[in-house]
Amino acid sequence: MEISRRTVLAGMAAVPVVSLLDTPAAFAAPSEVKLTWLEGKPATAAVTNWGTPWPKGAVPAGQSFALTAPDGSAVPMQSRPLAYWPDGSLKWSAHAIAVAEPADSYTLGPGTPAAPPHPVTVKDERQYVDVDTGVIRARIRKHGSEVISQIWRGDVLIARQGKLVNLRQERIPEDEESGSVRERYESDITRVTVEQTGPVRAVVRVEGRHKSRKGKTWLPFSIRLYFAAGAENVRIVHTFVYDRDGQKDHIAGLGVRFRVPLRDPAYDRHVRFVGENHGMVAEAVKGITGLRRDPGAVVRAAQVAGTKLPDPSTWDQRVTTRLQYIPEWGDYSLSQLTADGFTVKKRTAKGYGWIPVDQGRRASGLGYVGGVSGGVAFGLRDFWQRHPTQLDIRDAATDEAEVTVWLWSPDAGPMDTRFYHDGMGQDTYPEQLEGLNITYEDYEPGFGTPYGIARTSELMLWAVAATPTVARLGDMADQLRVPPQLINPVDQLMSTRVFGGLISPVDRSVPAKKSIEDHLDFLFDYYRGQVESRHWYGFWDYGDVMHSFDEDRSVWRYDVGGYAWDNSELSPDLWLWYSFLRSGRADIFRFAEAMTRHTGEVDVYHLGKWAGLGTRHGVQHWADSAKQQRISTAIYRRFYYYLTADERTGDLLSELVDSDRTFLVLDPIRKIRTEPYTPDPHALSIGLGTDWSGLAAAWLTEWERQGPKATIAKAKLLGTMETIAAMPNGFVTGGGLYDLDTGRFAPVTEKTVSVSHLSAMFGQVEICAELIDLVDMPAFEAAWLQYCRLFNGTRAEQTAECGAYFGNLILRQGHARLTAYAAVRLQRDDLANRAWKEFYTGDGYGPGLPWKADPVDSTLNPTEVAKWVSTNATALYGLAAIQSLALVGDHIVNP
User: Fold this and answer.
1) Alpha carbons 694 and 809: distance in angstroms, whole number
2) What's the 3-state SS for 246-311?
3) Is 879 left (phi over 0), alpha (psi -120 to 50) or beta?
4) Which N-terminal stretch is annotated as signal sequence (predicted)?
5) Is 849 helix (H, G, I), strand (E, B) or coil?
6) What number is the average pLDDT over the span 217-237?
7) Model's pTM, two decimal places?
């Protein structure tokens, strides 16, 4: 019996989905989309940006959109295109709103958008850019050190001289050595670009480097400033690139600093820090509570509330006449040096002793300084997760306070980016391969460098008219920790087929489906729990997970070569994003978001000769000498970019378009190549698996985004697809000679077999599914289906069709998805049954592993559970496609 168009392999994904054989016409293109908040309706005014997908051919490129609330009222909105289908129709649109009173949901559809009552406006002048939200105004100068020169609320200057600050320390002193001198740097602006001009949202990009008083520069940066109509806040997305080899020139402090004019008497000035669960340090610069003499209940109540105090002439004069003897606390610091501890201290002024104020576990990262005539609330997202961080307030007893949001706290000591061992004699390739065989670390001298890695942080500034209430500060802290995010329904993500049809909804309708869904949930919950219990936090580390578990020590192998940080090995990024796409779960989205921020920045080089390549898993994120496309691949970033329209992620995607040029400077298989290899731009050796899939994802993304290199990207994508298809063994060939100028592989005349267990495990399944869905190229589909059919095929099948046996391959369970994909496309029940069997018994697992042994309900202790998960890592990472593949239908094939 052949598989019908409505029948697919239920056993693998065990979830009903739209068959890959259905055409877009099988779905009624929705004219409207109902959007909901990821974590539920925000409690206060919200600003958000999101992307919505559309079916191929359904929405014209120039379509305008309108947004309505449940009561039918029009909501002001700003829209822009994100991506297009090959036929020119709109594939993804981006939208932004700023609502004072959020509704539970919104409906997006064609129409004319409503205009905001107070649109944001931008004036791009020769020397500066002025932005006005209708509530606040900001000036951004195009030269100098000030990223934001002034922020006004009405006619009141709220903040000024906003700049980046940095402390550089040449070396890290050892125990017996004295400390190293710290040199001060500030931002030096080289370029300012207005990217969006309103009416709902304005975006200004500021680029430059950090510069010392002696004229030395380092740490290139890119800052985006986001303004919204009617909003009192500015969102700051801060990115810097580390441009040193890590052995010296260490970051001893990195932050954003600005000055806050203070006009009120000291007793009407206030400092606030929000800790956990809206717990708060709330004090006045000059406190008049708790004194030996009582100024009066009304006076005390006003100061506690942060409102204007009555005239001192109305107080008890025993207090009024002695105000000069009450200390004024001008300096405050909140330091979060670990994930589980913060401290708050204060002093009257520089040169005087610090007094402990409070301690806690995990601060929200929000502070405030100002008075009854205005002030600034400021904060850093992922404050405790990205430790060591710090919030500083200085000189609050003077006419102008200084505020610094430290992304790297100067109290923590210099950032240690030095490589962690001396090489241990691994000077030659054979010695390095021996090291790989024992620690799984691919070491090579000079390759364990952080030169070119990056980190992006998100900050917020609120220019407020007066000291906010405790409740208002709590709301600000909530939005800082979890920014409001509108999302599309799962049905929209499925029916539009924007990710190649590889999305299946969560379904527990029969026991087989329920079993797989329960295991998927268990694995996610387990890894989320491990982040917390193992403290996988820190400035460079947050967002990543560990690779393998050491059952003897009952710890993850954090110190054993390539078994330590995962760095996207076997695509956990895909597992998480497909988990979100099919469920809409907020906890999965936030986990995937943190991983995307990490892997796209820290695990990938953005400067230098390796720009566009990522680093294989290791003890340090940059330690391994394997610098490859499989880590930097655009396939990992596309989800977050399209779902949120995040501009920084768009930058990362653009960086990868020309990464084929990295093959001129680094041969990925240099240590195992048996013949001499000299890079030739017309004959670059590129693998058809992890190498090509990464390049193809970048080219496809540039083409559909219609970026500046879209024409070239399209030509390279189609050219490589055509020339892979023309190879006698297609993808089974394993590699080819690529011409950098023509974007095509050289002709291959003989059948060659070179198959790796890793080729399809880093997004190749996903990218090929998208391309087959997008491009009518039967020969390419045939080549890919051949690979899918034969990877888990028999020796006889492989030899008969390709001329040679593929060898003793592993990760067969994960590759069951390839068999299933071929079953769907070819409508073959024999492949469907085989895929089901491979899923349950691949890689020699007994019938009890991994799915029949149920850790969800078992009595395994924590170490045994960790061993189970680590042993079955292929189940975890391979599930990126199992759960997302359109494999199911009306019948269930039992194992």
Assistant:
1) 22
2) CCCCEEEEEEEEEEEECCCCHHHEEEEEECCCCCEEEEECCCCCCCCCCCCHHHHHHHHHCCCCCC
3) alpha
4) 1-28
5) coil
6) 98
7) 0.94
